[in-house]
Design goal:
The protein is an all-alpha fold and about 80 residues long. Helix content is about 50%, strand content about 0%. The radius of gyration is 12 Å and the shape is globular.
Length: about 80
């Protein structure tokens, strides 16, 4: 199910999948998912990524650092 079909629950499920990917070393896939989540209004924002220890596995990645400086998408 796409996020557009369930904008309330689906982003949380997709975010959890990205966190698992980061934990198991699938950094590229995790970064792609985070980038997609940040492209839409939702519960994940660059400001929430910064202090969340869940994302420590991606913190040293240049792509992740770029995501932290993205402007927030407003609906």
């Amino acid at each position: 199910m796409r996020i557009s079909k369930d904008a309330f629950h689906r982003p949380d499920i997709v975010q959890a999948a990205a966190q698992v990917d980061a934990l198991i070393g699938e950094k590229k896939r995790a970064l792609q998912i985070v980038q997609e989540l940040l492209a839409h209004p939702g519960p994940l924002t660059p400001e929430l990524l910064k202090p969340d220890p869940t994302w420590d596995f991606l913190r040293d990645e240049p792509e992740f650092q770029k995501l932290l400086t993205r402007p927030v998408t407003v609906a």
